[in-house]
Amino acid sequence: MLINQIYITIMNLYPLKFSPILKPIIWGGSDICKFKGISPQQDGIGESWEISGVENNISVVDNGDLRGLNLQNLIAQYKESLVGKHVFEKFGATFPLLIKFIDARDNLSIQVHPDDELGMKRHNSFGKTEMWYVINAAPGAFLYSGFAKPLSPDEYVKSIEDNTFVDYLAKHDVKKGDSFFLPAGRVHAIGAGTFIAEIQQTSNITYRIYDYNRKDANGNGRELHTELAKDAIDFKLYDNYQIDYSHKPNDTVQLESCQYFTTNLLELDKPCKQNHIDKDSFVIYICMDGSCEIKDSNNNAIELKQGETLLVPAANTKSITITPDSYVQLLETYV
Length: 335
Hints:
Its cofactor is Zn(2+). The chain is α+β, with helices and mostly antiparallel strands. The protein folds into two domains: about 15-230, Jelly Rolls (Sandwich), CATH 2.60.120; about 250-335, Jelly Rolls, CATH 2.60.120.10. The protein has helices spanning about 1-10, 30-35, 70-80, 80-85, 85-90, 115-125, 155-160, 225-230, and strands at about 20-30, 45-50, 55, 55-60, 95-105, 110, 130-135, 140-145, 170-175, 180, 190, 195-200, 205-210, 250-255, 260-270, 270-275, 285-295, 300-305, 310, 320-335. Strands 14, 15, 16, 17, 18, 19 and 20 form a seven-stranded antiparallel beta sheet that branches. Helix 7 (about 155-160) packs antiparallel against helix 8. The chain starts with a helix and ends with a strand.
């Protein structure tokens, strides 16, 4: 009986969609609802948390028999069948990735995230390594990532005080399809007019370094974490901060692979079969453009369209068939 129950539990898993967690933020724009096809459209939505295991922001299933259960419920019930054995052993009930869309109508504050060691020491939390994929960018849109010229920790403190910190940063003009890897410790900020997909470790720890001396309605500036950030910042200069890749239709293009996630770009106009039997991980698909059918190794089929995100459970990833309606662009992510 126990064997049958386990078998039924595993077989009941299928590709999962989740209700987006929309975040009204003062700097939010109007692209997220349009991109996701949400009606009525809402302005001022800065972020859509597509898959989240962050406390008080746990994603809820929006399709099939498991509708209404949240991600924490699912991990508790299905364990390694949902996330993979090595993922469950390391992270337990915490889902390891946070998937977001971010729409910046204004320049976001300049910030940095601690690594795992510092995050655990200070906050009993994992750190935050992340990556960005630019979905769209207005003319003149930019972002900051890394340093353009040398800066010592002591000079860093002085540059905040005299408002010259931005002068040290590497500024990148961006366009649709640009991608950036942001390991913990890398100073960064999203500029106005930039609409991105973000894949990150599950962590909500951010040290705000600089906010352009902006004031709120009461004349107060936002809290800065100058000293906390000082120990977290990677002050090294690097030759390149952007992910270099070539478009290869109907092929798997790896954008980034690190200890926390691997992310590939798929641009398809014909059916494609992805074999993930060796990954021991869930697989996430984020639809950037077009639409397709995704069928898992248990023959569960589901439609995925622009702006939607899908989680294929680890037990169902032996073979995944993607059939575009005519064309589809996907980000594929796993641990």
